[in-house]
Design brief:
This protein is of the alpha/beta class. It is about 40% helix and about 25% strand. It contains ten helices and 17 strands. An eight-stranded parallel β-barrel has the order 1-2-4-5-6-9-10-17, surrounded by nine helices. α7 links the parallel β9 and β10. The longest helix has 25 residues. InterPro entries: Chitinase_II/V-like_cat, Chitinase_insertion_sf, GH, Glyco_hydro18_cat, Glyco_hydro_18_chit_AS, Glycosyl_Hydrlase_18.
Length: about 375
């Protein structure tokens, strides 16, 4: 019995090593998808992606078990079966949380070994029941260093359950990922658990966007600039922060937006980055999908500016001003990620692209020599 178990463990280790090497060679090209979006799962062009995340399920605020209602069941089953049947197939990851979830629920869950266990067991169980290849935690955001330390414990215990489950069932190990702040140190007050991430997490998705938006309507700003000549709100700063706290570069994925943010200019004649504004512009509270941005630009004969100093794009017409990424800025960013030997990139969110323009560009640049 012991020899058989050892042979199984060795085979599992070899399999995981081979799989990890294959993933490292092609890189991670991920994207989040959500139900009731404009693009159904059946229409996702999987040749531009390696992993698609289902966004989102939530933990029950009392039991901390993952809540799956009757309406979720057919969508979850269709999501995994459809993407596995695609040519090429992609890996599917169940994301838990999201920007609109209650961060205090995650804080309370992570603060106690019993509630962490209930959450972990449920997450692994749901992922297996619906045939996902992994689980993703989108906790936005741990509020203090105690939360961050508890997050490290959560990762350690979660990985132990994943390893145990795979060893006992003979199934492939579930991936364990996390959506995280754009920088490894958050506003100088707390730092993510780098050691736990290196040891227990498959990779983290750094949300390198939303540097400026409807929360600051006094002036325009970049949504996701690679550089910030006047401060630290930039993708390069965020990614370097992750590396500086000791997270291995192959564990870090660069976030890219498939959306834009808009403002209403105070003076249509003053329209650069940092121009005075009086409120949000077109869109839902100033938010637009990339598809909407492209259509609005064409409809209004907008002026489109590629800003080399920040590696970002903005457009304007009349008093309307929009910041976003296009093919040019995405290409530069993906090359930057490759130069830093990062593990790949991900998009929020797959349904917001237009005719796969940005998805295709990023994939082609990443795959090029």
């Amino acid at each position: 019995m012991a020899a058989s178990a050892n042979r199984h463990s060795l085979a599992l280790l070899v399999s995981v090593t081979i799989m990890a090497s294959a993933v490292a060679a092609q890189g991670i090209r991920g994207g989040y998808w959500f139900p009731n979006s404009e693009i159904p799962v059946t229409a996702i062009e999987t040749s531009y992606y390696t992993h698609i995340y289902y966004a989102f399920l939530l933990p029950d605020r009392n039991t901390y078990e993952i809540a799956v209602n009757d309406a979720d069941v057919p969508v979850l089953r269709s999501f995994t079966s459809t993407l596995r049947g695609k040519n090429p197939p992609v890996k599917t990851i169940l994301s838990i949380g999201g920007g609109s979830s209650d961060a205090t629920v995650f804080s309370k869950m992570a603060s106690d070994a019993k509630t962490r266990s209930a959450f972990i067991e449920s997450a692994v169980g749901v992922a297996r029941e619906y045939n996902f290849d992994g689980v993703d935690l989108d906790w936005e955001l741990p509020e203090n260093q105690t939360d961050m330390d508890n997050l490290g414990l959560l990762f350690q215990e979660w990985k132990a359950v994943i390893d145990y489950e795979a060893s006992n069932t003979g199934r492939a190990l579930l991936l364990l990922t996390a959506a995280v702040h754009y920088a490894g140190t958050v506003w100088g007050s707390r730092t993510y658990p780098a050691r736990a991430i290196n040891n227990y997490v498959s990779w983290v998705n750094a949300m390198c966007y939303d540097y400026h938006g409807s929360w600051d309507t006094s002036q325009t700003g970049t949504l996701a600039g690679l550089y910030d000549p006047n401060g630290s709100l930039s993708t390069s700063y965020g990614l370097q922060s992750w590396l500086s706290i000791g997270v291995r570069p192959e564990k870090v994925m660069m976030g890219l937006p498939l959306f834009g943010r808009s403002w209403t200019l105070r003076d249509p004649g003053v329209h650069g980055i940092g121009a005075p504004a009086v409120g949000v512009g077109p869109g839902s509270n100033g938010a637009l999908t990339y598809k909407q941005v492209v259509d609005l630009n064409a409809r209004n004969n907008a002026t489109v500016v590629y800003d080399t100093a920040t590696v970002s794009v903005y457009s304007y017409w009349g008093t309307n001003w929009v910041t976003y990424d296009d093919e040019r800025s995405v290409a530069v960013k993906v090359r930057y990620a490759k130069s830093q030997k990062l593990g790949g990139y991900f998009f929020w969110a797959v349904p917001q692209d237009k005719d796969w323009i940005i998805s295709r560009q990023a994939s082609n640049v990443w795959s090029s020599a």
